[in-house]
Each structure stands twice: as structure tokens, then as C-alpha cells.
């Protein structure tokens, strides 16, 4: 393939691979298909446009596959007619450029359906493997890279019809292992076979979690909520590992086939935390949860906070690294460290961090900030820093995630499952922890706690129905605008950037954030009559300058929406926030989250599943 075509092709594949949901069941229940499809529905928040399921029939030992484009909808399993079986797996896929066909949906089968595979990720060398397999007589049905895996595993089993269940499981494991060694790229695979009633899963770069239920019952999923109603006891598959579930579990290293011991970890999330409850969308539920999540976040053991603070104080350069919203949180934190602890902290987006590896020493400290703990670029940054011998820490929501396990020390933000793609409660919890750390670095932990406890209780008061109504009134006024701008200064400049992300993600209105002082250097040319501009104000040394910027915008016709502790004359519309000192970024972002949500609903967008975006970007 010419280089450019190949580039587009891989880009397309990467976008196909972003948001796949995976769930499998192996156990005593005979309604495995129903269990995995219900589990798949719990992963709907990831977004998808086709889905499929494979079940091994208890009666015929054959594997039935059912796949469709579109949404799963209300499940009527009678219409789907899947066999009774206690081994099944399901997959949801979302293609952003082309390729949304029934044939391309997972699961994919080898010739004669002997091997069936679901997959998240990219098999980078699939074209070469496909050619090789075609030469050997394999017939391909789909255009996907995944199908190669099914044929390749089958190829390694060719001619092998061994007697004895144990041996058949062993041969399947070996064939999967051989195939894995041939396939390049970051992936997660699940493999079923007509040969035996075991399921094999493997991971290289894309998360898979094994849930252990009662009586030899197992689940495998890309996200814990898919099986949380059955079990909270989990084991994590690490990179370059595979697991065989066969009534029991056996983990192996893919390279040498040696057994690996695993610890069972108990997850503290409750199944109802992962449901919408009385709310129409996860996004609004998660915004409202901020009434309590900040309290939970700062309720940390003093020893842990002081250990991290001590490491920051001693490090030969501290790097805060995150992607998307988490990256903006890191930026805001750098202002807080400067102001509160008089400390310079470096900030990099995960994808850019490797460019600075020249400065990383074994006395450097990298703190990865992430909701999911699985973002590929942030993980890569950690890998780069590790190679240089740097210390690794993380501030993360998902316990047991890759970042959590990779870090030398982790602070869990304890926000509970965040399902809406646009991050809200995880953002403010990360900000709270970083604010606390800045105070701790300055030897003022108690003062930091006081500021944050006060902010948390003020947020509780702020998020009342009247407040929501007021913001929804504003949303109605501006719902048809083409562009919006957000400005802030100091620690509220990164929050202006984050505000723009929130607005873009769910309202699809063109939104941009700027540092107030940068306005005159270009962006002010974009302001025309009626252009909404949100001004984030803190009651600190930046206040008068940002208000002057608002006046400049207003003079060019801008419609000024002030998010501020006090009313200013320049505001056309004032959204009141509590005056909480250095917790200002936390309280200022919340009304913008609400506004973005309201705009999404008014513009008939699904705020939980914005187009083209994924909750957890597990490929680069
Ligand atoms: C995606 C999500 C964002 C998130 C970013 C980083 O782009 O849509 O909401 O901020 O990834 O994710 P992380 O899980 O590392 O915080």
C-alpha cells in the first residue's frame, strides 16, 4: 500500500478501535448470551455503531454469531434466537470513518467458525499476515484486521484434532500464544473455539479485567461496570499476558508461556453508582455528584499526601502529565503550586511528554493525572519516564487501572465510576487533590483542607434546582450561536481552556479558551456583535485585569457572561460562584459544565456519547 494510503488506513483503523466495548462470560449459567448482551448495554456509554455476540451451544458445541449495525436497543432475546450455552462473548464497535457494516462488526470467525475472536486495538501488520493466510487457502469475509487473528489461530491448530478436553484447552492456548507473537500493535483479544468450552484472553496495551464470581464463574471485560452487578472481585491482565478461563483461571506470560500469579482485588464501586438513577443522562448525574465527590477526594490519609508532597519537594523536576481535561487540570495545578508552594512544576500533555525525555533524570518525578488510568499517551509518558529511572506517581480514579499499577505511589480520587465521555466530577476531584498537594508542599496541609472543605460545602449549596434553571435560561438564549469564547487569567486560564473543551465536546458549538492577556494579540478580531464570551473571575490579583479584558470584548459587541463571586458592571449575565480563594478553578468550572450539558440537550445532542469521542482513548 502506498505510504499515504497506509497512513489514512491506520488512522481509520485507530478510530475504529477507540471505543470498543468487550464482555465475556464463562460459568454455570446457561443464559450466557443474555448476560453478555446486558453487560454490553452497560458499556453503551462508550459509544458504538455496531455490535455482536458469540455463544457456544451446550448442545451442538458449535459457535453461533449474531451481529448488527446500530444500537442494541431493548433486548428481546427471543427475536435474536441464540443457543443455550454457558460461554459467550460480546463486542461493541464504533467506526468514525466508514466501515460500519454487519460484516465488519465483531465477533470474527475463522473458516468454518472453529475460532471466533473479538478484539480492541490494531493489528499493525495485518496486511502481510492476511496475504500469507490467503496463500494458505483462508477465505476472508470482512475488511477488518481482527479477522486475521481468527484465521491465524486456526492455522496453528490445523490438522490438530486432539482427544481429551484438557489437551484441547492446552492446544488452543498454545495456538493463541503463537498467533499473539506474530501480531504487532496494541490490542486486547478474546478467543473462543468449537474445540473446547474454555475462553482465552490476551492483552497488549488495551485493558482487560477478569471478574471472578461464584462457583467457577468468570467475566472478562474492557470496563468493570459491565459485570459489576455480578462481582466486585477482579484480576487485572497486564501487558503481554494471557489468561485461560476453563472453570478455573490460569494466567501466562505470552513470551515464555510461564504461569503468572494474580492477586484478587476488591473494587469498592457499588453497581448503582454506575447507573443513571433518576437522571436523564450520566453527565448531569456526574455534575450533581460534585456535591459530595470533592469531600471524598480530599478525605485522604495524611501520610499518603505528605509522602507525595515530600517527593515533589525533593524531586529534581516534577512533571504533571495528562491528556484532554486531565491535561488542563495539570496546567491549573502548576499555577496553584507556584502561588501556594512557590514551586515550579512542569506540565506536559501525555502525547508531547516524550519530546522532553532529554530532561528526565532518575531524580525526576512524573505524576500522571487521569480518570481512567488507561489513556495510551499518558501511559507512554510513564513508560518513557520509567526508562530514564524517574519516580512515577499517579492521581487516578479507576483503581487497579494500568496507571495505578504502574505507579510507585497512587492517590485515588474516589469519584466513583464516571461514564459520560465529558469528564466533570473526576476533573474537580483531581483539582482538589492537586490543590491539597500544593498546600502540603508548603507545609500548610490543614489550611488546604479548610479551603477545600469550605469549597465543597459551598458547591453543595450552589448546585440547587434554581441554579440549574438559571443556567438553562442562559443556554436557551445562546443555543443558536456559532462560536463562543472563554477567558481567564492565572489559575483560571487553564479553566478557560477546559471550559472550551466542555462546550465543544457536547454542544458542538465552536468554542475557544484564551488567557485574558492574549486577547489583544489576535483573538479579539473574532469578536462581533452578540458573540458570547464567558469570563472566569477569581477574587484575587487577576480580577481587575480579567474584568478589563471583558470590557474590551464588550466594546467590540461581545455578550459577556461572567462566572464570578461578585457582580461586575460589565456582565450581561452573571453566574454566581462562591468566593473560595484558591479553590476558584473548582467552583468556576462547574457552571460551565452545566451550561455545556444544557446546550447539548437543547441542541438535541446526546451529552453522554458525543460524536467522534471516546471516554477512554486506549490507542495512540
Ligand atoms: C478522553 C476523554 C476526556 C479525558 C481524556 C483523558 O479524551 O473524552 O474526557 O479528559 O480522554 O482521559 P483520562 O482517562 O486519562 O483522564
What does the model show?
By secondary structure, this protein is an alpha/beta fold. It folds into three domains: 3-272, 4-Layer Sandwich (Glutamine Phosphoribosylpyrophosphate, subunit 1, domain 1), CATH 3.60.20; 277-463, Rossmann fold, CATH 3.40.50.10490; 464-606, Glucose-6-phosphate isomerase like protein, domain 1 (Rossmann fold), CATH 3.40.50. It contains 18 helices and 25 strands. The strands form four sheets. It has an eight-stranded antiparallel beta sheet with strand order 3-2-4-1-10-9-11-15, covered by helices on one side. A seven-stranded antiparallel beta sheet has the order 5-6-7-8-12-13-14. The chain has a five-stranded parallel beta sheet with strand order 17-16-18-19-20, with helices on both faces. Strand 7 (187-193) and strand 8 (199-204) form a beta hairpin. Mean pLDDT is 91; it is low at 1-18. The structure holds 6-O-phosphono-alpha-D-glucopyranose (G6P). 6-O-phosphono-alpha-D-glucopyranose is lined by residues 323-326, 370-372, 375, 378, 421-423, 613, 615-617.
Offer a concise description of the structure.
This protein is α/β, with parallel strands linked by helices. The protein has 18 helices and 25 strands. Mean pLDDT is 91; it is low at 1-18.
CATH-scheme architecture of the largest domain: 4-Layer Sandwich
Q: How many alpha or pi helices?
A: 18
Bound molecules: 6-O-phosphono-alpha-D-glucopyranose
Report Rg: 25 Å
- How would you characterize the largest beta sheet? 8 strands, antiparallel
At the first level of CATH, what is the class of the largest domain? Alpha Beta
Biggest sheet, spatial arrangement of strands: 3-2-4-1-10-9-11-15
Mean of the pLDDT scores?
A: 91
- What is the domain tally? 3
Using DSSP, what is the number of strands?
Answer: 25
At the third CATH level, what is the topology name of the largest domain?
Glutamine Phosphoribosylpyrophosphate, subunit 1, domain 1
Low-confidence runs of at least 5 consecutive residues: 1-18
- The shape, in one word, is globular
Strand content: 15-25%
CATH superfamily of the largest domain: Aminohydrolase, N-terminal nucleophile (Ntn) domain
Helicity, as a percent range: 25-40%
Distance between the termini: 21 Å
| Coarse structural class | alpha/beta
Amino acid at each position: 500500500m502506498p505510504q499515504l494510503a497506509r497512513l489514512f488506513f491506520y488512522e481509520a483503523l485507530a478510530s475504529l478501535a477507540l471505543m470498543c466495548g468487550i464482555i465475556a462470560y464463562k460459568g454455570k449459567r446457561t443464559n450466557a448470551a443474555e448476560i453478555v448482551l446486558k453487560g454490553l448495554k452497560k458499556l453503551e456509554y462508550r459509544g458504538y455503531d455496531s455490535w455482536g455476540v458469540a455463544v457456544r451451544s451446550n448442545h451442538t458445541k458449535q459457535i453461533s454469531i449474531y451481529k448488527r449495525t446500530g444500537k442494541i436497543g431493548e433486548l428481546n432475546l427471543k427475536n435474536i434466537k441464540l443457543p443455550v450455552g454457558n460461554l459467550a462473548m460480546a463486542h461493541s464497535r464504533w467506526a468514525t470513518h466508514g466501515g460500519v457494516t454487519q460484516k465488519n462488526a465483531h465477533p470474527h470467525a475463522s473458516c468454518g467458525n472453529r475460532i471466533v475472536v473479538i478484539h480492541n486495538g490494531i493489528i499493525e501488520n495485518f496486511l502481510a499476515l492476511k496475504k500469507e493466510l490467503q496463500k494458505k487457502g483462508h477465505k476472508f469475509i470482512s475488511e477488518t484486521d481482527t479477522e486475521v487473528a481468527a484465521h491465524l489461530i486456526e492455522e496453528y491448530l490445523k490438522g490438530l484434532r486432539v482427544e481429551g478436553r484438557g489437551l484441547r484447552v492446552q492446544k488452543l492456548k498454545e495456538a493463541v500464544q503463537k498467533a499473539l507473537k506474530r501480531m504487532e500493535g496494541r490490542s486486547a483479544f478474546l478467543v473462543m473455539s468449537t474445540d473446547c468450552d474454555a475462553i482465552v484472553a490476551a492483552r497488549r496495551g488495551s485493558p482487560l479485567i477478569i471478574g471472578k464470581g461464584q462457583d467457577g464463574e468468570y467475566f472478562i471485560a474492557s470496563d468493570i461496570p459491565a459485570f459489576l452487578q455480578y462481582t466486585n472481585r477482579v484480576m487485572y491482565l497486564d501487558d503481554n499476558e494471557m489468561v485461560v478461563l476453563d472453570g478455573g483461571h490460569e494466567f501466562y506470560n505470552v513470551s515464555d508461556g510461564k504461569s503468572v500469579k494474580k492477586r484478587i482485588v476488591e473494587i469498592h464501586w457499588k453497581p448503582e453508582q454506575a447507573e443513571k438513577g433518576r437522571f436523564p443522562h450520566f453527565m448531569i448525574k456526574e455534575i450533581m455528584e460534585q456535591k459530595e465527590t470533592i469531600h471524598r477526594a480530599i478525605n485522604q490519609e495524611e501520610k499518603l499526601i505528605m509522602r507525595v508532597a515530600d517527593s515533589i519537594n525533593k524531586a529534581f523536576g516534577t512533571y504533571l502529565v495528562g491528556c484532554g481535561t486531565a491535561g488542563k487540570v495539570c496546567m491549573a495545578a502548576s499555577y496553584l503550586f507556584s502561588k501556594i508552594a512557590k514551586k515550579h512544576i512542569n506540565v506536559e500533555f501525555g502525547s508531547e511528554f516524550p519530546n522532553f525525555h532529554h530532561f528526565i533524570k532518575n531524580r525526576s518525578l512524573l505524576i500522571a493525572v487521569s480518570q481512567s488510568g488507561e489513556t495510551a499517551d499518558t501511559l507512554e509518558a510513564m513508560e518513557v519516564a520509567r526508562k530514564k529511572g524517574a519516580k512515577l506517581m499517579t492521581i487516578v480514579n479507576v483503581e487497579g487501572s494500568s496507571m495505578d499499577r504502574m505507579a510507585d505511589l497512587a492517590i485515588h480520587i474516589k469519584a466513583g465510576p464516571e461514564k459520560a465521555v465529558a469528564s466533570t466530577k473526576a476533573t474537580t476531584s483531581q483539582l482538589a487533590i492537586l490543590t491539597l498537594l500544593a498546600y502540603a508542599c508548603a507545609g500548610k496541609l490543614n489550611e488546604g483542607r479548610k479551603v477545600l472543605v469550605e469549597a465543597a460545602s459551598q458547591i453543595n449549596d450552589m448546585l440547587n434546582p434554581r441554579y440549574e434553571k438559571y443556567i438553562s435560561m442562559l443556554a436557551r438564549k445562546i443555543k443558536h450561536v456559532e462560536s463562543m469564547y472563554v477567558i481567564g487569567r492565572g489559575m483560571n486560564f487553564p479553566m478557560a481552556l477546559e471550559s472550551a473543551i466542555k462546550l465543544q465536546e457536547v454542544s458542538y458549538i465552536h468554542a475557544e479558551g484564551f488567557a485574558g492577556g492574549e486577547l489583544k494579540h489576535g483573538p479579539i478580531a473574532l469578536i462581533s456583535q452578540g458573540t458570547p464570551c464567558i469570563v472566569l473571575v477569581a477574587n484575587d490579583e487577576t480580577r481587575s485585569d480579567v474584568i478589563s479584558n471583558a470590557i474590551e470584548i464588550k466594546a467590540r459587541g461581545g455578550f459577556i457572561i461572567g462566572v464570578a463571586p461578585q457582580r461586575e458592571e460589565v456582565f450581561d449575565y452573571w453566574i454566581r460562584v462562591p468566593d473560595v480563594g484558591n479553590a476558584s478553578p473548582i467552583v468556576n468550572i462547574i457552571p460551565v459544565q452545566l451550561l455545556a450539558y444544557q446546550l447539548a440537550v437543547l441542541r438535541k445532542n446526546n451529552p453522554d456519547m458525543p460524536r467522534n469521542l471516546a471516554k477512554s482513548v486506549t490507542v495512540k
